[in-house]
Amino acid sequence: MPDLYRLKTTVEAMQLIPGTDNYKDICDWIHGVSRGFIQVNHDGDRKVYFESPLAGDQTVIPGDWVILHADGVFRHCPSTKFARIYELLEGLDD
Q1: In the chain, what are the domain boundaries?
Q2: Phi and psi torsions of 30, nearest 5°
Q3: N-term to C-term CA, the chain
Q4: How far apart are CA 92 and CA 94, in angstroms?
Q5: Over the stretch 52-88, which tens digit does the pLDDT of each residue have?
């Protein structure tokens, strides 16, 4: 039976929060590194689409996360996967 390992890395991340306009903050954050744009769905929820140089086209739906990895690449991460892999680092000075 193989052993289980946890990913040991620190990343910056923002969640696309359903029912809010924080998609603007995410696009501002991505801007300059990747091309990002917004699509409004018929039900009013917003998705963020962006192109990542190494990871390709990315689609972020409400509840999911955008992660900036140490290699400087933004990637999409579904909320369920994010919750399994990452935990918030608290008490760090900005």
Answers
A1: 12-85
A2: -70, -35
A3: 42
A4: 6
A5: 777 788 888 899 999 988 888 888 999 999 998 888 8
